[in-house]
Amino acid sequence: MNNGKDVILSNVLSSICDKKDFLILHELDRNARASYSEIGKKTRCSPEVAFYRVKKLEEAKIITQYQLMINLAKLGIIQFKIYLKLQHITSAKLEEIINSFKSKPEIKWIVSCSGTWDLLLALETLSISQVERLTNEVLTQSHGFVHTHAVSILTRASVLNRGYLAGKKDVATAREVYHEAEPVAIDALERKILIALSANARSSIMELSRKLKTTPRTIMYRIKGLVDKQIITGYKIALNYEKLGVKFYKLNISIDNPNSEGHASLTRYLARHPNALTFVTVLGGWQLEPEFEVFSEKEFQDILTDLKDRFHDIIKQVDVITITKEHKFVYF
Predict the structure, then answer these.
(1) Rounded CA gap, 115 and 322, in Å?
(2) Helix (H, G, I), strand (E, B) or coil at 39
(3) Buried-most residue among 100, 176, 216, 280 (CB within 10 A)?
(4) Do residues 277 and 326 lie in contact, with contact meaning Cβ atoms separated by under 8 Å?
């Protein structure tokens, strides 16, 4: 990690966690089900110290969730996003609308944001016709308060390791969360396992066994099967951005000639950037939706300037969305 980054980490986190904690967060982000022995080996500490530090990070609510990642396409699921620009709305009414969205099972991600859009929803369904129905339901629930809206449909998405936590890029272990594939049938127990792991991806085999009323051996066998079928693609952590001093930005990028070598080069650039959280391609008014985590606005502006300079010949427009609050987030 360069000296500039070390200074940023020291200034932001010295009162919260140290460099060893960063390394532990990095390892949990790579694999949230890693054992304390595995974490200790990777971060050069004992399993007991790894256990103690992870518990401290949980108690401090720096780690807010252990998340399951699955390839939604393997289950025949379509994910799409609805962007809302609001008007004539009070904070109380906005909270009421957000709470009504939270209760809708098809809505998996809800965030408040600033910039081009005020509210962003990610939804999952099984057919294109349902995309229209669900979009209309969202617009009906917020009728009179929406100035404009847009919809994008996911075509491919990867979750990237948070390389910036340890000064690494870790491109090779990016996890697919949407990649075109033939749907695979799963049974009732497998679905229950996915739901349980979505609630807490670090649940032990024994905990899952008790909860689902089956043997640990069966749980282990079924999880292995879901991994082998490439339905489960990994496990990661959710972080408390406010406590960590992290800023979360989303870009909607419109490009010329999606089939060009320049586009392929842009794709590689985004996939290898240590501050990139996701790489996403969509159908909609733009083609790319990468997300970035940084420690300062200047750091993000430097990334944005570099991106525009490198790919000025193919980038038509970049809309910057600052994610200000996450209200709901589940993968499945």
Answers:
(1) 6
(2) helix
(3) 280
(4) no
Give pLDDT, residue 261: 82
User: Is the Cα torsion angle 193, 197, 202, 208 positive or negative in sign?
Assistant: negative
Secondary structure (3-state) at 251? strand
pLDDT tens-digit readout, 236-272: 999 999 888 899 999 999 998 777 788 889 988 988 8
Structural domains of the chain, with CATH:
73-162+241-329 (3.30.70.100), 185-228 (1.10.10.10)
DSSP string, 75-141: GT-EEEEEEEEE-S--HHHHHHHHHHHHT-TTEEEEEEEEES-SEEEEEEESSHHHHHHHHHHHHHH
pTM: 0.89
Residue range 42-88, pLDDT digits in tens: 999 999 999 999 999 999 999 999 999 999 999 999 999 999 999 99
Contacts with 198 (C-beta within 8 Å, 6 or more apart), sequence order: 67, 68, 330, 331, 332
Q: Which of 157, 124, 123, 168 is nearest to 29 (CA)?
A: 168
Crossing angle for the helix pair 205-212 and 188-199, nearest 10 degrees? 130
| Rounded Cα distance, 192 and 233, in Å | 17
Give the whole-angstrom CA distance, residue 318 versus residue 309. 12
Instruction: Give me 217's structure tokens.
Output: 């051996």
Sole residue written with tokens 């780690």: 63
Dihedral class, residue 109 (left if φ above 0, else alpha if ψ from -120 to 50, else beta):
beta
- Distance between CA atoms of residues 162 and 157, nearest Å: 16
Q: What angle do CA 88, 91, 96 make, to 5 degrees?
A: 95
Ramachandran class of 135: left when φ > 0, alpha when ψ lies in -120 to 50, beta otherwise: alpha
Calculate helix-pair angle for 205-212, 216-228, nearest 10 degrees: 110
